[in-house]
Amino acid sequence: MLIERIWVGNPGRNFNYLVACEATGNALAVDPFDAGQVLAAATRRGWRITQIVNTHEHGDHTAGNAGVVAATGASVLAHPRAVARIGSVDREVGQGDRIAVGSSVHLEVLATPGHTPAHICLPNGDALFTGDTLFNAGVGNCRKGGDAASLYETFATVIAALPDSLRIYPGHEYLRRNLTFAVDREPGNARAHRILERIENIEGASAPVLTLGDEREINVFLRVDSPEVAAGVAAASGCTRASAQEVFLALRQLKDRCRRDARASKFSRAAKRGRGQHAGRVTHCRFVHIGDGNRAERRLHHSDALAARLGSVASVVGRRVQYGPTHR
Ligand SMILES: [Zn+2]
């Protein structure tokens, strides 16, 4: 099996993959985001894309489907529960199915619900394509149609049964931000600190490929039995003597909160820079993001509490920050 990892370079920090059969040159595109990048990579390697698999239905994992299909006639594979959202799916795949690529590659399909109910992971040989279920040093969130208890079950049963030797190919590159959260939760984890130091100036296209064994040493979500992790969760959340599942769920909540806080402070800094131009009492603020790929416009309405902290009103259109009168 040959693997091409494609760093998309978008704000979502997506990775795309091509998985090819050495004997035939046939290739499978995993979660294509930018069809042009995926097609160019296949051309460069001399491969023919015959299939596309979406690990789940989110737009940043399917945006390139149409372009790749138009150029190659590839068939699209996804979990049955993802079909309504993805639209045109030629083959539904679920737990225990196999995806053959050319004559020499046979990926297994593992149902891994949690990030969404339709999520699948794909092991083959020493590789594991994990979409948004398992990231380096983190796990997927459950904010868009997911369920944290299901995600815990996926890790406690499906992922726990897999060997240490698997090399992890996730859907996004979040290693540094995830490790920063992990070492906060488990300051005594020397290995996590060492990797964090090593990757200080490395990310994106040059991010290291870690194994599941590495993840079991550094990924706090895979270390819910560690006394230090449990104690850290207790200190941060007030949840004492928790079960492994409760620690996992508390970690997921803490991570969501950290992300919200990081976004709020980034937004707050931007708002402060513009305050001189437009002073005024804030009652509401609006964040408008014009997405990449096939994403529709997303509108996120921040809470009044956040708006009050900003001290100004801002709207962000695409990557341009604008300041203006209060939006209601
Ligand atoms: Zn997703």
Keyword list:
alpha/beta; 2 domains; Metallo-beta-lactamase, Chain A; 328 residues; 22% strand; globular; 33% helix; disordered C terminus; four-stranded mixed beta sheet; six-stranded mixed beta sheet; binds zinc ion
Mean pLDDT: 83
Our count of domains comes out at: 2
Strand order of the biggest β-sheet: 1-2-3-4-5-6
Classify the fold: give the CATH topology of the largest domain.
Answer: Metallo-beta-lactamase, Chain A
In angstroms, what separates the terminal alpha carbons? 55 Å
Order of secondary-structure elements: EEEHEHEHEEEEEEEEHEHHHHHEEHEE
Explain the overall architecture.
Strand 17 (314-317) and strand 18 form a beta hairpin. The model is unreliable at 274-328 (pLDDT under 50). The chain has 10 helices and 18 strands. The strands form 6 sheets. The chain has a 6-stranded mixed beta sheet with strand order 1-2-3-4-5-6, covered by helices on one side. Strands 9-10-11-14 form a 4-stranded mixed beta sheet, with no helix packed on it. It has 328 residues and is α/β, with parallel strands linked by helices. The protein has 2 domains: 2-170, Metallo-beta-lactamase, Chain A; 243-323, no CATH class. Bound molecules: zinc ion.
